[in-house]
Write a structure and sequence with these properties.
Layout (H helix, E strand, L loop, with lengths): L13 H15 L1 E9 L4 E3 L4 E3 L22 E6 L2 E6 L4 E3 L7 H7 L2 E2 L3 E2 L8 E5 L5 E6 L10 E8 L2
Antiparallel strand pairs: 1-11, 2-3, 2-4, 4-5, 5-8, 6-7, 6-9, 9-10, 10-11
Length: 162
């Protein structure tokens, strides 16, 4: 196959065409992305890119122990004393953290668990892979070091498309 351009365009370098193709392919593999600020007891739906918190205002002692079932939440930030855990929900799975950005291939090959994962003491820029309850892969990056007893955890996330 021969790539040539019309004379009035001049010569179009093949590397420029390949660079454009690479950019298009790379952008096709990344879905929704953003930043989530998650407070203890709040749940996250990565497919929707939201963090939701349940607030009970009546104080009559009948507060539910967790978010109602039937939601699409992928995990919940659960405190236990000063410790903080990510608790997978609704069939979502979480892989152990890595200091290297995993991307789609790393998240596809990761070993997942439905067990809660302790995150307090995690440094900035630690990566986690999540398989959402809709069976999509997502990459979480811890945006700031997580101190024990933290009042909020900040994640940056990317949904990874096949």
């Amino acid at each position: 196959m021969r790539f040539t351009a019309r004379r009035n365009w001049g010569t179009v370098p093949l590397t420029g065409m390949l660079l454009l193709l690479t950019v298009v392919l790379a952008s096709a593999q990344t879905g929704k992305q953003g930043e989530l600020q998650v407070d203890p007891h709040c749940a996250v739906d990565l497919d929707a890119g939201i963090s939701e918190c349940m607030v009970t205002l009546d104080g009559d002692g009948t507060e539910p122990p967790s978010h109602p079932s039937g939601q699409d939440h992928d995990f919940r930030l659960e405190p236990s004393g000063s410790r903080l855990y990510l608790q997978p929900r609704n069939g979502a799975l979480i892989a152990k953290p890595t200091s290297v950005q995993p991307g789609l291939s790393g998240c596809v090959q990761a070993r997942y668990s439905s067990s809660r994962l302790r995150v307090d003491g995690s440094p900035k820029d630690l990566y986690l892979c999540v398989q959402t309850n809709q069976r999509r892969y997502a990459e979480l990056r811890i945006a700031e070091a997580i101190q024990p007893g933290a009042a909020q955890v900040i994640f940056r996330f990317r949904l990874l498309e096949k």
